[in-house]
Design brief:
Radius of gyration: 18 Å
Number of helices: 0
Order of helices and strands: EEEEEEEEEEEEEEEEEEEEE
Largest sheet: 10 strands, antiparallel
Shape: globular
Number of strands: 21
Bound molecules: copper (II) ion
Distance between the termini: 21 Å
């Protein structure tokens, strides 16, 4: 457990709907050293693809949630694009429309950006976290690295700075199809640590469904504590999670303040994972100007 458990300095998104109240012990699981890029290996398909966007309208003012809807609280992630090419970089264009149906152009900056964008394949490989640019008319362009064949879910998280959604944190998503022959990768098995780029990431913590519980990430290298983490998006590490089966999204907010290029080795997060099952966690942290992405599977029973 980390002792530096500070109140979150960033607004805490209600990114995960509180579902069951039962306590969930979390077995922290690690994968191999996958950094999330989906080179396919044979094996059982990790999951069935989620092709349609289930409607989650009617959730009322609680606009956030698991992010599986394209529309919530009157706001819509709108795009004419349902297909993206395989094996090459591509741009995904979209707008965020408000209750009046018009593109929203005013957003509150969160973790240095007006909008955060994620791509994840249905088998929870291929994680991408990018920051699209917005044209004056509210059209966003997300630059995506090469995608593999299959179904991908694309998430946008944002906070309108005016209108009925002002100050509300939204996470919306749509799916796109990448043509070709899909090959799923089985979700890596549970473990408590993983290694990426020579860094060992270890997780400790216990979670309860729908409630914020501390999750501590400890980063070491060659057995020694890492203390030169650089701020990335105003934090020492950025942690997102996706639920196996439906691809539900969670952003785990840091409770360790970033105060210079000497972060680490222990970082604390509010972990809110509302659903039981396996979640794939993607931890992004920066050292010496290089961004590292560690992927770890967490089992919530
Ligand atoms: Cu971001």
């Amino acid at each position: 457990m980390s002792s530096s458990f500070l109140p979150s300095s960033s607004r805490r998104r209600t990114a995960v709907a509180a579902l069951a109240a039962s306590a969930l012990a979390v077995t922290l699981a690690a994968c191999g050293s996958s950094s999330g890029d989906g080179s396919a290996m044979p094996g059982m398909p990790g999951m069935t693809t989620t092709s349609a966007m289930p409607s989650m309208d009617g959730m009322g003012a609680m606009a956030s949630g698991d992010g599986l809807a394209a529309t919530s609280g009157g706001y819509t992630l709108a795009s004419a694009t349902a297909t993206l090419p395989a094996g090459q970089v591509s741009d995904y264009r979209f707008t965020i429309t408000g209750p009046d149906g018009k593109p929203v152009t005013g957003f509150t900056v969160d973790q240095t950006k007006k909008l955060h964008f994620y791509a994840i394949r249905s088998d929870l490989t291929g994680f991408q976290h990018v920051h699209p640019t917005m044209a004056a008319d509210g059209t966003w362009t997300a630059p995506l690295a090469a995608l593999t064949a299959g179904t991908w879910r694309l998430f946008a998280t944002f906070t309108p700075d005016s209108g009925s959604g002002r100050g509300t944190d939204f996470v919306l998503s749509r799916t796109v199809t990448v043509p070709g022959r899909p090959v799923d990768t089985a979700l890596p098995a549970a473990s408590t640590s993983t290694t990426v780029d020579g860094y060992t990431v270890t997780l400790t913590g216990e979670l309860m469904a729908g409630m914020a519980h501390p999750l501590t990430v400890t980063i070491t290298r060659d057995g020694k504590p890492v203390t030169d983490l650089e701020p990335y998006l105003d934090t020492y590490a950025h942690l997102t999670a996706f639920h196996q089966g439906d691809g539900a999204f969670a952003h785990l907010h840091p409770t360790t303040a970033a105060t210079g290029a000497h972060g680490g080795p222990a970082l604390s997060f509010h972990a809110e994972l509302a659903k039981s099952g396996d979640w794939r966690l993607f931890l992004q942290f920066q050292t010496a100007g290089t961004l590292h992405t560690a992927a770890i599977t967490v089992h919530v029973s």
